[in-house]
Design a protein that fits this description.
By secondary structure, the chain is of the alpha+beta class. The chain has one domain: Alpha-Beta Plaits (2-Layer Sandwich), CATH 3.30.70. The protein is about 25% helix and about 20% strand. It has a two-stranded antiparallel sheet. A two-stranded antiparallel sheet has the order 2-3.
């Protein structure tokens, strides 16, 4: 699975970095995905985060490679 953040929607609240440390880094205004590949043990957490993001900026997709 892959993690993506729509920076045009992101408000930089930090929820994703708190939930997925090491995959996401929050800056002053937005978050950035630093490792888009979601480890299998974090897939359910990442999918739940899609629902909890207050800006609806997080997307989790199947890895098609």
């Amino acid at each position: 699975m892959k993690l993506n953040i729509d920076i045009s929607r992101c408000i930089g609240c930090g929820l994703c970095e708190e939930t997925l440390p090491g995959l996401v880094k929050t800056g002053k205004l937005t978050a950035t995905v630093i490792h888009p590949d979601i480890p299998p043990n974090l897939e359910k957490i990442a999918q739940a985060l899609v629902e909890y993001c207050p800006a609806e900026a997080i997307e989790v997709t199947e890895d098609t490679t």
